[in-house]
Amino acid sequence: SWDIVLEEKHPDMLHLLQFPYNGEPPKRLVTAKEITPNNLHFIRNHGGIPTIEEDKWDLNVDGLVREPKKLTLADLKNESLFPRITKACTIQCSGTRRVEQIALYAGEGDEMINAPWAEGAIGTAVYTGVSLKHVIKHCGGLINKTGHIELFGADTYFKQNEVMNYAVSVPWSKVKANEVLLCWEMNGKPLPKIHGAPVRALVMGYIGARSVKWLYRVSALDRPTHAPVQSKEYLYFNQQVGKHNQRPVEGIQIQEMPVSSAIMSPLNKQVIIHEGAIDCRGWGYSGGGRWPERIELSADGGFSWYAVPVENLSSKHRFAWRTWHYSLPCEVEGWIEIVVRCWDNSLNTQPLEVRSAWNWGLHVTSSCHRVKVYSVN
Ligand code: MTE
Ligand code: MO
Fold first, then answer.
1. Cα–Cα distance measured from residue 52 to residue 184, given in angstroms and rounded to the nearest whole number
2. Deepest in the core among 3, 179, 340, 366, taking most CB within 10 A?
3. What DSSP designation does 247 have?
4. Coil, helix or strand for 54?
């Protein structure tokens, strides 16, 4: 699988874990483009990278559907069966910016699960595929309309002395809204092996964990799956919870991501020589089909805020981030703290301090991102 990393990924990717392979782009490249090039999109894996031959692949649709079927890639690409959909969409790992929680208090999270992600565990690409809703209709529709749809990946991983396939589930209501796609193209090119070839799920506006790669089976259930990735990982615990007392049923299964943002430039601890304004750039994102409506920056640690003019934000799309740039006025000389916050279209915004977002699983670091720089004016 290391050969696949070298073949498909940019040489400057930061390799956070060699096996299972996890990597993110360096800060200067995270928001260099509004659409992330395939070789710079972050990668999150729980196990190996399976190599699947396209013409041997099929998708099993089973469980509580009226007519279980096996579909080939040619079936999915047959436009008289399924309308083709192309959509720009952001995938964000719930571990994005986890380093800030680790720096505050590492907790007792499992090292393998808790890759030390910075601000690059997010990427935006244009995906092409079909709606899972249309595929399920093609299989006669659901017997029971109130369930979850389970998604299985061909990769296996090892957990509590058991080898299992990667599996999660999403509510039928999400599928019904045409917000779950089965994709074979990323940015106009065949889906890279490392991103799930030949077909992956794309669950728009949910944590990356639900967008199952190397998809080979979807199964209709009357409840969320009991698979460990769904029921034991990706849980948002309250602050009284640690390893000694964690009870998975008390954790919230993370689905939609809240609003968040990050500064990609300047870098923390950088010395900046400027003439009254510091050039800043970064991203803002909100899950669940909400979008960044306003980005604000502070040069004084979060007491006063400048709104980034809307023309400095990239275009607005449901389910996609907005990149931004701004010359932040600053007359002070010495150490200052630059802070960003995002407001989404529902006027949700971010907690000011990472300590109020800290949780034992080290997920969803949605607090305001801060960098300290030395200002020379
Ligand atoms: N799908 C499979 N089959 N195996 C995995 O380990 N990781 C998930 C998701 N889909 C994973 C998977 C997680 S946690 C994330 S954040 C996204 O894939 C990352 O997608 P990417 O690697 O294409 O960026
Ligand atoms: Mo993730």
1. 13
2. 340
3. -
4. helix
**Co-location of 227 and 140 in the same domain:** yes
Ligand 1 atom closest to Cα of 95?
A: 16
Give residue-wise pLDDT tens across range 338-367. Answer: 999 999 999 999 999 999 999 999 999 999
Residue 265 belongs to a domain with what CATH number? 2.60.40.650
In whole angstroms, give the CA distance from residue 273 to residue 366: 30
Tokens of residue 17, six digits: 């874990």
Residues 236 and 268 in one domain: no
The string over 93-112, giving b where at least 16 C-beta atoms fall within 10 Å of a residue's C-beta and e elsewhere, is: bbbbbbbbbbebeebebeee
Mutate to test the pocket of ligand 1, among 43, 51, 203, 213 (most ligand atoms within 8 A of CB): 213
Ligand 1 and 293: CB distance under 6 A: no
Query: Are residues 6 and 55 both part of a single domain?
Result: yes
ipTM value, please give it: 1.00
The two tokens of residue 3 are: 């050969």
Q: Which residue's C-alpha comes closest to atom 17 of ligand 1? A: 208
State the pLDDT at residue 109: 58
pTM summary value:
0.97
* Cα-to-centroid distance, 300 and ligand 2 (Å): 32
Residues 214 and 300 in one domain: no
Distance of alpha carbon 108 from alpha carbon 151, whole angstroms: 29
| Domain's final residue, options 253, 272, 288 | 253
Does 214 sit in the ligand 1 pocket, CB within 6 Å? Answer: yes
The rounded Å distance from CA 316 to ligand 2 centre is 24
Domain count, the chain: 2
195 lines ligand 1 (CB under 6 A): yes
Looking at residue 99, which CATH number applies to its domain?
3.90.420.10
Spacing, Cα 93 to ligand 2 middle (Å): 4
Q: Which of 253, 269, 285 is at the close of a domain?
A: 253
pLDDT, one tens digit per residue, over 145-200 is 779 999 999 999 887 788 899 999 999 999 999 999 999 999 999 999 999 999 99
Q: Are 57 and 216 in contact (CB under 8 A)?
A: yes
| Ligand 1 pocket check for 193: Cβ under 6 Å | no
Structural domain range at position 216? 2-253
Per the prediction, the chain carries an average pLDDT of 95
pLDDT digits (tens, 9 = 90+) for 85-101: 999 999 999 999 999 99
